[in-house]
Amino acid sequence: MKGSNSTAPFDFVTSGHADPKHFFSQAADDIRARLLDDGAVLIRSARQCRDPGVFEAAIAALGFETRDYVGGSSPRSTIQGKVMEATRTPPDWSVILHQEMAYVKSPPEIIAFVCVEPAGKGGESVIGDMRKLERLVDPAMLQRLTERGLKLRRTLPSEDRVGLKPGVKKSWQETFSTHRQAEAEMHCRARGWDFEWNGADLILWQDCISPMRAHPLTSANIWSNQAHFWGAAAMIEWALIDGREQDARELMTAQRENPLLLEAMCFGDGEPLPEDLTLALFHAVRGLEQDIDLGEGDILLLDNLQYAHGRRAFSGNRTINVIIGNWAGDQSYAVQG
Asked: In sequence order, what E strands does 157-298 have?
């Protein structure tokens, strides 16, 4: 394992267990307790979980309540049931550390990845302990973000125009799993999200959140947002680090000539975050990166509040399936008092 943090997630090994559902049922208490304490758990050699149905049954056996991905920002498709592909972000892109859907009021509380096929070269999973980030952030910056709140503005083109958009390419049809504008609007209203149509493109304002969030079981306040991820400054820095110079040029042009074409992390009143603040957060989060190699059938289980995740660029094939979910309201592991 590589990275700036040498502490590995706690390992469980399933080799020799013919019935994955039985193994996960029997190990559920230990795995959940370790996940809550450590924030990250590796489950090695669960090769039968490469099958989406077996993977979903195994995660259900741990007692987690699975969720859908409506409103999520990553380009991905459902494979079966609640099992999704990890992302369709191009292989020559890295994926910077982030907590899943941390731009909404109620993001998933856990996320599970299973390696179906590791990359030919590169493609390491990246995790980062977000419990450490508060100590790396200027207290005055944190107070400013807390007082003003954070809100993500997203630009979602129609699917016939999504290829024209610099940065993360995701249509409103994919975001809301519908081709009907009225149904997309219904999803927005049901979640309290503001929106407007700019021709065939949807401008979406997601929830106003605090930069810190209380853990549902421990009540610990943990940094949880994507202020370091969205906005032209972060996207350009990300592209330059990856060596994606054409992407960087396209983003710079859009930032200069048509900023509404790009996502922006804003204060709660809609004012975009200053570039220097965004870049300070971007590099603070990068300092938490920790690489983990996943082999066939390995499962990486994360508490989505305590740990962020990402990916290195790769070549060849790489198939990772993912499930998001909640602790399912089980308070037996909650810290009391």
From this structure: 194-198, 201-209, 212-214, 221-223, 264-267, 290-292
| CA 159 to the chain's CA centroid | 22
CATH number, domain at 156? 3.60.130.10
Q: How many angstroms separate the CA atoms of 251 and 233, rounded?
A: 9
Backbone angles phi, psi at 305, to 5 degrees: -90, -45
**C-alpha distance across the termini of the chain, in Å:** 37
Are residue 170 and residue 47 in the same domain, yes or no? no
Where in the sequence is the domain holding 17, given as residue range(s)?
Answer: 10-129+290-326
Judgement on whether residues 29 and 14 belong to the same structural domain of the protein: yes
- Which residue, among 125, 96, 115, has the nearest Cα to 241 in the 3D structure? 96
179-226 tens-digit pLDDT? 999 999 999 999 899 999 998 899 999 999 999 999 999 999 999 999
Residue 165 is predicted with a pLDDT of: 85
pLDDT recorded at residue 4: 43
Interacting residues of 225 by C-beta distance below 8 A, sequence separation 6+:
99, 102, 103, 145, 150, 209, 211, 265
Would the pLDDT of 332 be above 70? no
Q: Is 288 exposed, middle or buried (0-12, 13-18, 19+ CB in 10 A)?
A: buried
Residues 39 and 97 in one domain: yes
pTM: 0.89
Q: Which residue has 């559920």 as its token pair?
A: 28
Number of folded domains in the chain? 2
| Co-location of 171 and 273 in the same domain | yes
Domain identity same for 146 and 242: yes
Q: Give the pLDDT confidence score for residue 74 in this predicted structure.
A: 63
Asked if the structure places residue 73 within a domain, the reply is yes
Q: How confident is the model at residue 87 (pLDDT cuts 50, 70, 90)?
A: confident
Is 151 in a helix, a strand, or coil?
Answer: strand
Confirm if 6 and 16 have CB atoms less than 8 A apart.
Answer: no
